[in-house]
Amino acid sequence: MLIMAINAGSSSLKWQIYQMPQEQQIAHGQIERLGSQNAVFTAQYGQGQTFEKQEAITTQELAVTLILTRLKSLGIIDRLEDIQGIGHRIVSGGELFKKSTTISPYTTQKIEHLGELAPLHNPTEAYYIQVFAKLLPQAKQVAVFDTSFYATMPAVNYLYPIDLKYYQRDHVRKYGAHGTSHRYIMKRTAQLLHKPVEQVNLITLHIGSGASITAIEQGQALDTSMGFTPLAGLMMGTRSGNLDPSILPYLMEKEGIFKIADLMKILNHKSGLLGVSGVSNDKRDLDEAAAAGNKRAQLAQDMFVNRIVKYVGSYLALLKEQPDALVFTAGIGENDPDLRWAVGQQLAHLGVHIDPVKNQVRGQEARISTPDSKIAVWVVPTNEELMIVRDTYELIDNKKTAL
Ligand code: AMP
C-alpha cells in the first residue's frame, strides 16, 4: 500500500511517498515559492532520478494536481488509486488532539479553528485536506500533530505563572513543537538501547534552524523548551528563544516600533544566530566566519551552546532518574561535531563524556559517548515523514480513530 506524507507551509509543499508496511521511500519532492509565477517543482525518485521545473503554480489545488499528474507521467506509480492514505503534518492540535487521528469533516473544521494558535499553518493545512479529499477521494486522510506528543506534560510544566484565567479563558499554555521529531527519536532510540519505549528516559535535542529540547520520562514527554509558540526556549537560527518580556515594550518605545507584528518579525526572523552574528542564520557560515576571526560569529556560537547546556542541565534536574541517553538530531545536531563536543565539554562534570573520534559521525546513527560516560550520548537522524507515514498506515490499516 502507498502512503503519502504532506508537509504544507504557506508558500511551500513537501511530499513523500512510502510503500508500506516495508517502509520503503519511493519518491519525494517539493514545491517552493508556491503561489507565484516562478514556483519551483522538484521530485526525486527511482535510482537517483530528478525532475525539476520552474513554472507558475498559483493555487494549492494546482499544486496538488501537478503532483498527482506527475506521479503518473514520471512513472513513479501506476495508478493513483494505489495511494490509500495521506498523512498531513498539522502544526497545532491545541488541547483537543492528543494523538494522530483519522480525518472527518469535524476534525478538518477543528484543525481550521485551531488556526487561532497557528495562523500561518493550520488554515492552510486544513485547506489541503479539502483539496486532497476532492482530487484523491479514495485515499483516507490522517492528521499528525506537532503538539500531540506534549499532551502528557503535567500542568506544572505546561502552565505559565500568570493569572489562571488566561489559561482557562484564552488557552495560554505551553503546547510545544517538533513533537513528531522528538517522538520518532524516542522510539528509535528505545530500539537502539533495546528497551521498551515505555521505560526510556531521554533528553532529546532537535538542533536545526529551529531548535528544541525535550525531557522524556518513561516514554512520555515531561517538558519541552518550545512554548505557546515555537519562538520560546533555545536560541535558534533566526528566533530569539526566551527573553524577558519587558524588553518588548521597552524596544518599541526606544526604537520607534509601532506595531507588535513588526517586533515579532524581529524576534522570529532577525534574531538568534543571525541577529547576534550579523553574518548568517546558517551554522556552517558561522563556523567559517568564526574561523576567520569574526568575533560576533564566535559569540553567537557560544551563546547557542550556552542555551543548550542550560536546558539540558535543567532537564537533568527535572527528570527523576538519570536519562538513558542524550540524543542529538536535526541539521546541526546530526552534522556538527563541534557543537556536540562543546555541549559535552560543559557537561563533563556531570559525567557526560563524548568520544572525540566517534563524535565525527555525520547524519548517521551512532553512540558517540565513551564507554565510561555516566550518561550515553547518541546521534540519531530524525525522520518526521516516516513517523507521519507510520501513524497514517496504522490508523487506516486498523481503522482506529485515535482522537
Ligand atoms: P534543519 O533545520 O534541521 O534542516 O537544520 C538546518 C541547520 O543545520 C543549518 O544551520 C545548517 O547550517 C545546519 N547544518 C546542516 N548540515 C550541516 C553540516 N554538515 N555541518 C554543520 N551544520 C550543518
TrEMBL record:
Catalysed reactions, as listed in the record: acetate + ATP = acetyl phosphate + ADP
Presence of keyword Magnesium: yes
EC number(s) recorded for this UniProt protein: 2.7.2.1
Catalytic residues (positions): D146 (proton donor/acceptor)
Top EC group: transferase
Subcellular location field: Cytoplasm
Co-factor binding comment: Mg(2+). Can also accept Mn(2+).
One GO MF term: kinase activity
Binding site for substrate: R89
Residues given in the record as ATP binding sites: K14, H206, I207, G208, S209, G210, D282, K283, R284, G331, I332, G333, E334, N335
Cytoplasm is among the record's keywords: yes
Positions with a binding annotation for Mg(2+): N7, E384
One Pfam family this sequence matches: Acetate_kinase
InterPro entries hit by this protein: Ac/propionate_kinase, Aliphatic_acid_kin_short-chain, Aliphatic_acid_kinase_CS, ATPase_NBD
Domain of life: Bacteria
Chain positions of site Transition state stabilizer: H178, R239
Protein family: Belongs to the acetokinase family.
Complex and partners: Homodimer.
Annotated protein name in UniProt: Acetate kinase
Organism lineage string: Bacteria, Bacillati, Bacillota, Bacilli, Lactobacillales
